[in-house]
Design goal:
single chain, 0% strand, extended
Length: 55
């Protein structure tokens, strides 16, 4: 059996950004009923975009 590891929370910085209302509505609809926050969704989406960006 694996040993329990205490999770490490990464350092964060608060940023204020504006989203178009339709994007907010689409994200909220996508995460409705799921164990996901708006912030977690946006962070995952940005990470995926950064991994797939053509430089």
């Amino acid at each position: 059996m694996d040993k329990f590891k205490i999770p490490v929370v990464p350092a964060t910085t608060n940023k204020t950004i504006r989203f178009p209302n339709d994007v907010i509505e689409a994200v909220e609809k996508a995460i409705q009923g799921k164990e996901c926050t708006f912030s977690a969704f946006v962070i995952a989406a940005v990470r995926m975009a950064l991994e797939n960006i053509d430089e």
